[in-house]
Amino acid sequence: MPASAMIPGARDLWFLPLGGCGEIGMNLNLYGHDGAWLMVDCGITFERDSTRIRPRVQTPDPQFIVERKDALAGIVLTHAHEDHIGALPLLWERFPVPVYTTPFTAEVLRRKAAGRGGKVPSPLIECLPGEEQTIGPFDVRWLPITHSTPDTCALHIRCAAGSLLHTADWKIDRAPQVGPAFSSELFSAAGESTLDAVICDSTNAVVPGHSVSESVVRDGLLKAVTGCEGRVVVACFASNIARLHSLFYVAEKTQRYLGLLGRSLQTMHSAALSVGLLNRSKRLIETGHLGYLPKDEVLIVATGSQGEHGAALQRLAAGSHPQLELEAGDTVILSSRIIPGNEESVERLLQRFRSQGVNIIDADSAVEPVHASGHPCAEELASMYQWSRPRLAVPVHGEQRHMQANAKIARANGAAMALTGSNGDLFYLAPEPGMRRKVAAVGRLEQDEEGRLSALSNSSS
Fold it and tell me: Is the pTM of this model over 0.90?
């Protein structure tokens, strides 16, 4: 489609996902109004190739917006997860516009870019939760929302044609351990302003009830670690700063020394310290000292909960970690969920530990909760729609079954209409809701060993 086509008018408010709609991961969203576009998030995913030791990074194919980069007013990043920011250092030079995000996400982006040899966007403008920025014809307010990484914000986006709420990834957590508690008042206030649409996370829409609070996980981890006699390794996602904060608490209460194994974990810890989201734990020691301590005084936080090759947990299972070796009677706690597609690699990892006499505690076998999802279950989605009262709901961030379940919840809780689609579909948010299928070419780019990006042959339009 030529760049001269697909120009939103002064009365139009459009939504066009290039990634993250009909799939989990690789988010790239575009909002269009009055000849301009606003990008929200620019993330990665990883190839599903069990034959390759190191899965390759994949990004959305951004060609649609590259052809219209003169109309791109700016880029907003909602939070620091790789599936929302990981592609930006690789793609930003194709559409070099200002990038806006919160301080923690900005700090993580700088460090990720340096580690991957990508470009740090410039200017990179830091916005505090609660602030508002005018970006081209869009007014964007950052609404703090709870998720499994701090400084996550939903976006209340307004323009002359209407207004919308982009939830980003979220959950309702009244005691998140790091950052402010969830505030329903923010979303009720947005609803009172009359929302044309809510673009909403669907990841856990098929799960009934309510997600678990990080405060409950903290107490569950304390009980689990207290019951262990040898060394304890807790594997979690590096970006979960609240989980790290909870493990600082657990180390203090159990009088264990704490070590951080894994470069990404150390990067996230350092970034959180630098922006004031964490205080340095008195129990934290250099990892090189862990092997000299009595076993019952050691608590380790490690990366590699998905069985990733070369991660700290995999090296511990193989007995090849340079700073620590586990023995029979030690315990590994999986404080994470298994991402679909990683089941085999995780099971191989756990079998290796079991063969050495290492005890395993995972989210399914634990007596008390040792993990909490960062996404809303059905009850939380219902509450969000009741507060925000949108005319239109557009579920994203999920496979079709998740989005269909989200749409059903939206219609049952006050949304006049709910539309589900896929990457490349154009959603009309205002003046009248509707959609057109397969308006934009979409696909994936893959990064090779030399860092070059090329289109995958199965990219579609």
Answer: yes
